[in-house]
DNA sequence: CACGATACCTAA
DNA sequence: TTAGTTAGGTATCGTG
């Protein structure tokens, strides 16, 4: 920490017998000890907060996912076996040879991967609890990493189960036998990695707690250490990036738990993280979603119904494996472990900073430096971030060129040698009197020495990461073998992410080694650079300077500027863009580089961080429609808004057909108000970011989560979950949080939704923001007119006061109220019986057909055309349509029944 | 009804 | 032995 003129200092290295003693030792030294002749003295400690496993790996030069050689003759068989491993021997740790992940050693190990899923029989209306409810099935798939089919597929069932092709069905008479069989299976298969969906929070703890309830003492020995019991601990993880999440920490020695739910939540921003929704998203494969209350019925049926359950259970074990393969997670995660040096398990259980710290510790060791364990200072400190240039909002119908700094923050840190060990304290600035040519004074006022005096560790780490990335990308181009390609692609991704998170690490005031002098210097250089770029572009590309038009920077954020060169073709904009990038890059120190990347044409700039446009990287045709920040890319909008905005942008930007966009809006509004909208389009989801009491204001999704907790605590959303809801009709002037409701509940109880809310609070503003730059009187054009007057005939409410209201019949022909409930038609419509009867009949048959089609579709999804559909998936549009069709059909049949002759 | 505070999510 | 950063838009709630 800080630039040290003196090349080396004496340090005292303290070695203790057990890892746990490090903390105690550190405490004593920090608090201070009495030394004869010196009095009370306290000490700054160094590297006293490094996790033991990481310490060991760093000292032995071992990284996560790394190959280790135990040289012949350097080990001997253990005298007494302590493990369940296939090979067991003793070896001195210093004899291990750690191989860098290159050549032969970059290959992935043939990990044995177990994917499993359990089913439990909850009591009616309750979510299963391990203290009451039995485990009735466990499905297992075992796959060798790199192979595309599992080599073991089995299901352990309580009670009989009809055979399933290609699956080893193992039936048992008692639950105890099921659990013991699974435990034995684990020992026999000896998996390296255990995967599944939500296994860390549900399946694993459930099995263990259930075994404890049943008193199966031998069950919780699932790891590789003989006689070591699995331990469970409640854990919460909380960070700005990943949010707060409660989970369970299950210790299974020697096997990595790789919960696909955690992977999804960390790596992808989705509106729903149910296995069903995720599978649909990544695998285009739906899965039936059987409500937990039905599972008991299937279990209590016969061998056939249990077989049905088994098929379902197997699919839940199969999908995580498919996701693992499809997203190449093993490659990406192992490469991340190799690049950053942390064990694989840290990547899912810990945050970003441990990865940077691991690299820092390794590099420091190499340089013979030690890292101080600085006190956690006040975390309130803030520093200024990046500049966002004031946007000149509007619809641009000429090409806009985009200039970007490549890896801006890493290159600033490299260019100006910003590091812990190059920072000069204000005191030292005065004392040391360093010559100006040896230091950089940053725009934020800090002083760092240049690399001739001391090369920074951070810049060196960054250089290595970026060079390695370049190499990985080059190798990737040459690679033929798909496995090799996967490894390299995973590696270049890991390298990029790692380089980008170094800056964040220095600014993390609650982390291990904050250094705001570095982070605020980085951003101050960044601010200076974007302003400089804007100025250069506007000064050079002028008519006075011999160009056809005056260039104008219309927007820019952090590391990019959008330039309107005034030219009318994409090609011309690209040419000028390249020229500008090259010219401006020349004015910066290496390795800072401004690149021309792309052209937007046309370009709709709404405000800071919000824009849309067609993106061109070559002049022949556009690559895609690119939207930033607006509703189409946000998860807290209902599909109705997302689809509507996407479709309008498509029509405006691609088709260049504004009238058709307007017509589309009108049709959609009309459909909404006529109650013709699919409920699935109206579902809004928002993340539950804290526990109930911590909220200071009431919000729709929070109050709904509370109400759901009262209905069924076990299935209600938890911290970190996303809560889907719809807004239903309520009292006049009721707040949104009073009108939010669970979509499934709405469907089952036939509660009318509030179309007006969707029109006024969901659709209108986003639309106006898009149309206003394009259309005069946008509000009048879109939101007023006949299409908004078609007031809905809502489905009658069954709850509340409506229970006491008697339903009055209306004329089948014209819907006027009838005084006499025996009547079918009013006096006006008398005489049209034949026509209207035919209409009723055809309505019923039409709806029957629609329903039939949807039903078949669901049957296909569940994989059998001979059985009832049980699926109630909140994430599946077909489910909502099927339910609606069913209701409509029933209503039509009721109408038909009124024609009793 | 205006306005600040809170909450959420995104850009970079 | 818990946590990468700041900037910014928008909706909604609560209060004066």
From TrEMBL:
Does Zinc-finger show up as a keyword for this record? yes
Any matching Pfam family: DNA_pol_B
Tell me which GO cellular component terms the UniProt record holds: delta DNA polymerase complex
Cofactor(s) demanded: [4Fe-4S] cluster
Question: Could you tell me where this protein is found in the cell?
Answer: Nucleus
**Known EC number:** 2.7.7.7
UniProt KW keywords: 4Fe-4S, DNA replication, DNA-binding, DNA-directed DNA polymerase, Exonuclease, Hydrolase, Iron, Iron-sulfur, Metal-binding, Nuclease, Nucleotidyltransferase, Nucleus, Transferase, Zinc, Zinc-finger
InterPro entries from the xrefs? DNA-dir_DNA_pol_B, DNA-dir_DNA_pol_B_CS, DNA-dir_DNA_pol_B_exonuc, DNA-dir_DNA_pol_B_multi_dom, DNA/RNA_pol_sf, DNA_pol_B_thumb, DNA_pol_palm_dom_sf, DNA_pol_type-B
Biological process GO annotation list?
base-excision repair, gap-filling; DNA replication proofreading; nucleotide-excision repair, DNA gap filling
Domain called DNA-directed DNA polymerase family B multifunctional: residue spans: 342-774
GO terms (molecular function) for this protein are: 3'-5'-DNA exonuclease activity; 4 iron, 4 sulfur cluster binding; DNA binding; DNA-directed DNA polymerase activity; nucleotide binding; zinc ion binding
Occurrences of domain DNA-directed DNA polymerase family B exonuclease (ranges): 45-278
* KW Ligase (keyword) present: no
The protein's annotated catalytic reaction(s) are:
DNA(n) + a 2'-deoxyribonucleoside 5'-triphosphate = DNA(n+1) + diphosphate
Leader sequence residues: none
Domain C4-type zinc-finger of DNA polymerase delta per the UniProt entry, residue ranges: 811-882
PANTHER family per UniProt: DNA POLYMERASE CATALYTIC SUBUNIT, DNA POLYMERASE DELTA CATALYTIC SUBUNIT
Which family does the UniProt entry place this protein in?
Belongs to the DNA polymerase type-B family.
Q: What is this protein called?
A: DNA polymerase
What is the species of this protein? Salix viminalis (Common osier)
Q: Which lineage is the organism of this entry classified under, starting from the top rank?
A: Eukaryota, Viridiplantae, Streptophyta, Embryophyta, Tracheophyta
